[in-house]
Design goal:
The protein is an alpha+beta fold and about 230 residues long. It folds into two domains: about 100 residues, Sandwich (Immunoglobulin-like), CATH 2.60.40.1110; about 100 residues, no CATH class. Helices cover about 45% and strands about 25% of the residues. The chain is built from seven helices and eight strands; from the N terminus they run αββββββββαααααα. Helix 3 packs parallel to helix 5 and helix 5 packs antiparallel against helix 7. The termini are far apart.
């Protein structure tokens, strides 16, 4: 009986040690693109204002893929799908990569819309943030539609009232972004949002985000960029 227990524990230990391992400064990216079995994928990052390739993945007969990317800290990367025959805009998937294991599941027909990305807390937080921002965008589109139609759609419409609503909506959107960044300042998504969405906000709000950042986040790629940006503004 004792030997059986030892043997079982040994198998359990070996199983736990199995599978791909990652270092602290790399991401193991796996995934599957249903319907895409022959072609190339490119993992890219933004360097200044230019997309720079980090890795090329060739698919030949299967839709699954796997690659390792060196990554010192969480960072927005792009998974570019080379369709070969078309220049569709639905071909560059933005995802918040972070060291560890990540997975991307999607399909060729709706590469962006059907993408399910797992394994990154920053990605989860960013997706939650973008879902809310999409509601602000929808409200903005409705106001712009009302602005175009004017009294033809609403006899009580006034340009002044519509503009006031747009200004208030923009203020609400900025405050939401700032509060979200402050609330999640222990993740790299916070300085990223500050740098990309609300960089022109009042300094006191940006300073609040910077002060809330944890030491780990402050030392990250976006944390350093955000700190440098604030210094330039002062």
């Amino acid at each position: 009986m004792y030997k059986k227990i030892v043997l079982a524990l040994s198998f359990a230990f070996l199983a736990s040690c199995g599978g791909e391992k990652t270092n602290d400064n790399e991401v193991l990216l796996t995934g599957n693109i249903k319907g895409f079995k022959k072609g190339k994928l490119y993992v890219q990052r933004i360097n200044d204002t230019t997309l720079v390739p980090l890795d090329t993945i060739t698919l030949n007969g299967q839709s699954s893929f796997e690659t390792k990317i060196a990554l010192d800290s969480p960072e927005m990367l792009y998974l570019f799908l080379d369709r070969g025959q078309t220049n569709s805009k639905d071909n560059n998937l933005l995802f918040f990569a972070e060291p560890g294991k990540m997975n991307i599941e999607t399909d060729l027909e709706s590469f962006l819309a059907n993408a399910k990305i797992t394994g990154s807390k920053n990605q989860d937080l960013y997706q939650e943030y973008k879902n809310m921002i999409s509601l602000f965008n929808e409200e903005q589109l409705n106001l712009l539609k009302a602005q175009v139609l004017g009294t033809r759609a609403d006899k009580n419409y006034t340009a002044q009232s519509n503009q006031a609503k747009q200004d208030q909506l923009l203020k609400r959107r900025y405050l939401y972004a700032a509060n979200y960044a402050i609330t999640h300042a222990d993740y790299e998504v916070a300085p990223y949002i500050a740098l990309t969405d609300i960089y022109d906000m009042q300094p006191r709000f940006l300073d609040s985000i910077a002060k809330k950042m944890t030491p780990k986040v402050a030392k990250s790629k976006y944390g350093k960029k955000f700190t440098a940006y604030l210094k330039e503004q002062k």
